[in-house]
Amino acid sequence: MKKTITLFFILLTIPFYSQWVEQVSGVTEPLNDVYCIAQEVVVVVGNAGTILKTTDGGAHWNQKMSGTTRDLIKVQFVNANTGFALGANGSVLKTIDGGENWFAVNNGGDTNFYNCGLSSVSENVIYICSDYWIKKSTDGGANFEYVNFPLDQNIENLQFLDEQIGYASGPNTLWKTMNGGTTWTLITSAYSIGAFFFLDADTGFIYTMSNGIYKTTDGGATFLYVGYSEGQVQDLFALNENVIWEINGIFLLCGCPPAYCVTKTDIMASPQNQQITNCDVGGELDVELNAIHFASDTKGYMVGYASYTGTMGPAVVIGAIYKNTTGTMLDVSKAATNDAVIIYPNPASDQIIVSFTEQVNQPFSVEITNCLGEKVFSKSYQSESAATIEVASFSKGIYFVIIVRQEKRLVQKVVIE
Description:
The chain is mainly β.
């Protein structure tokens, strides 16, 4: 009995010290991006021109006048005073007093770059992009000019590390410029590129929709496999070359809305702890996470949208902000009640059983890959409600079980001992 009470106490106290804690945003609009100017000073932007700022580490969030009702998608600061926000339908905003006041700058007449990005490298040099073009300002946003880019390429993401070196991605490509966008070199077209994030001109991470996260330390000349990522990565952030944070949208077998999770990958940790995923940030609320940013190794913020429309109480709709003050979190996978799938035992040594909680016999397939993305098992099942898979011959380590049923894909991590 004493052991049970002790374990229960630990389980209750760990989330308090190591989980993401919800902040009181005071707004109902979805929040789209967050930037940490300092550990206690953070700016958030969202729909309908929403701009929030805290100067006390999230204890209070104050709404600032943006001067627009358009959705704001990106926000970045180049120092404690100067920052830029990018919005829908051609909105570019600037602040020179740390986000207290904002004013519009002229982007040159274009009206749609909702789907791309903003990269501010200095008080004077700013890059913005739309689906098919990139623009550059060298006078703090007073004027923008087009930057050369291959005409047949869609642009999905953009990041400059200084005034000369930058990266841009399309659906299946990653490009690099070393002269401020005058010319671009194709780095890779071998992967289906999603989000990417570079620490400096040489070191960066890319998310590939088929295999997960890769790392480069030579400016994209070569890439090394880091680890698998469940679902589709919405945002990617790193403070150093060993720790990567990502927001994942995971599609569930039940046909429910995607489960949004936050994943931390620590390359230097032990194999069992290299990747930790928390899919229960919002508790009973349905959460959509959009962006993540850390001010230090132990202090970071995520933003998005949270709602509740169930029968246990009144409807709740909030602009969601979550704060982490430890740089750690519990490994909380997607709830089995949502996925309708149970994989046990885990860890395992001889065999694992993939079982569906609903007793409806439908075709499904199971694939198992190792940490290198190599397939070690694959089989289709026609009418079973469970599958028993022998794993005694597997090497010890972490594996990913990929289940496909009714055109929906679920990935769960298992440990083979």
